[in-house]
Amino acid sequence: xxxxxxxxxxxxxxxxxxxxxxxxxxxxxxxxxxxxxxxxxxxxxxxxxxxxxxxxxxxxxxxxxxxxxxxxxxxxxxxxxxxxxxxxxxxxxxxxxxxxxxxxxxxxxxxxxxxxxxxxxxxxxxxxxxxxxxxxxxxxxxxxxxxxxxxxxxxxxxxxxxxxxxxxxxxxxxxxxxxxxxxxxxxxxxxxxxxxxxxxxxxxxxxxxxxxxxxxxxxxxxxxxxxxxxxxxxxxxxxxxxxxxxxxxxxxxxxxxxxxxxxxxxxxxxxxxxxxxxxxxxxxxxxxxxxxxxxxxxxxxxxxxxxxxxxxxxxxxxxxxxxxxxxxxxxxxxxxxxxxxxxxxxxxxxxxxxxxxxxxxxxxxxxxxxxxxxxxxxxxxxxxxxxxxxxxxxxxxxxxxxxxxxxxxxxxxxxxxxxxxxxxxxxxxxxxxxxxxxxxxxxxxxxxxxxxxxxxxxxxxxxxxxxxxxx
Length: 471
Fold this sequence. Notes:
53% of the residues lie in helices and 12% in strands. The protein has 471 residues and is α/β, with parallel strands linked by helices. Among the domains are: 1-35; 41-154; 349-394 and 410-471, no CATH class. It starts with a helix and ends in a 7-residue tail after the last helix.
């Protein structure tokens, strides 16, 4: 067992005491150095942030601050290449104090200068979102604000800018030289202006004036105008050109402005006088509104008629010469009071004929109905031999059933109403089956018949009669 004297001898040894002091100092130095990178065995909240420029941040040495207070350090700085045409950026790994977990996901970061000697720190500006960033999460690049270095700020004052500032200061000195009394009067008047200005500003900053909304609206307006700034500059340039042109024509412009009151008075009198005419025109416009709805279709038909008629008029000079007389007669007819009733009857007639024409038109266009019928009728009474025409011969022999009978012939073929339309021509295309067939033949017949041509000499006779041009 040691005694009190042995402990006294232990601390009286200078070598041992010096060694202990040196060891304690070394431990304190190591702890103070390690504190810059975080104390060992102390839990930390680690996240990553992306910034446009790391701005010479030091791994393990640069601080992370919130409102000027140190809350962590930058433990890693990594350069990342840009993608999709975007510039490169830096990804920083931060080791924050555990009591800062979690920071809002809408927080912002910015590299700021710590001193004019070049030291930097990362300023973390917490957002207001209720959602926090989990440990290991990353703040995107859009939430990393750029930094303006001192040398970049000083680069604004290049030789041209410096020369402009010198000229401005020189001209300002020339402007105020010899105007001391005026400046003093301006200061006195400014002193008198300040109390009313203060009352105005107090009114402006009242919540009811909406100054904040006005400022935000102005900022939004300028943000919207920023992309079209070149267009606005061109507008101002062109406006200056317009104003110079107006200035050059100032006498004529003044005379025009001087005449405007008399012109306006005359215009008012004229409008007052034509008001009944405008009222009648309005009534006429409302009355013809149903007819105007038909104008597009009518003008289209009229255009087609002109297109088809112009070549015919060119081939019929005699008809063209008499066209004036015809149009004059048509004008007289249109003014006849009995014409509307006749037109109504004609319209009814045409309307009643429309179903018939709708049926005959495809029969004629597709099946050549009328020419074939007239040709066959002519051939029946004109073709034969010395005994007579074939038509008369058929009637005499009675080889077919040519009259009504209670008992039709066993081999009678009869189609009372043949199908004559755009898809089928039954008349003349029926197949003889040798048995009795009354009604439309089975199936669909072909949509064509014999092609006919005008007899010789007909065109010459028509031209001689003046119906067509000379063939």
